TrEMBL record:
Entry-linked InterPro entries: AA_synth_put (IPR009569), BB2672 (IPR035936)
Superkingdom classification of source: Bacteria
Protein name: Uncharacterized protein
Pfam families: AA_synth (PF06684)
Length: 193
């Protein structure tokens, strides 16, 4: 199995106070941790790539913990998502290798998170951007937490790199009023409701 070669890691947090409406009692924070790594399969077709998912597990845990710390602790997190961008010498399937190590890392560190971790991925050139979807950590149908965060780096991914991202939020959209299942009404039985 190939080694994970990390070039750069970026953690960013944005704090939202309002979006033109009344200022609520507390702000909402969204954060992302992004790792830029070498793509060990770039430039060729490799039939057996699943082993690299296991190699990515420690990186996933490191990124998830870094992001949890940046957002004030696991008890603050209400939403999450993940994403991957693959440089031009790679293929979309290489980004799919991030599904398990990225998602399970967050679920392992966020006690009681039952919802599937939403994701997005694409092949891009240097400076590409990706909107990473966010849903509630315990119930995917909580509409107030449907959100996204744009991630990227001005110098990545280079052709033989991948950008792996984890995103989290501390609450619902700041002025959510689109209805649907409320966070306080989650039953927590199936990760959906």
């Amino acid at each position: 199995m190939p080694n994970v070669v990390l070039r750069k890691m970026i953690t960013s947090v944005e704090e939202i106070f309002h979006e033109g409406g009344p200022v609520p009692a507390s702000s909402v924070r969204r954060g992302a941790t992004v790792a830029i790594i070498e793509n060990p399969y770039a430039g060729r077709y490799e039939p057996d790539i699943q082993g690299f998912m296991e190699d990515l597990e420690p990186l996933g845990l490191e990124m998830a913990q870094k992001l949890i710390d940046a957002l004030g602790g696991a008890d603050q997190i209400e939403g999450y998502g993940k994403g991957a961008m693959v440089g031009e010498a790679g293929e979309l399937e290489h980004g799919a290798l991030w599904h398990a190590p990225g998602g399970y890392a967050m679920r392992q560190l966020l006690d009681g998170s039952n919802a599937i971790v939403p994701s997005s991925k694409k092949v891009v050139g240097v400076g590409g951007r990706l909107d990473v979807p966010i849903t509630h950590i315990n119930a995917s149908y909580v509409r107030s937490h449907f959100d996204s965060m744009e991630i990227g780096s001005n110098d990545a991914p280079r052709a033989h790199e991948m950008v792996l991202a984890l995103v989290m939020s501390t609450g619902a959209r700041i002025h959510n009023r689109a209805g649907g299942l409320s966070a306080q009404d989650i039953k927590g039985e199936d990760g959906l409701r």
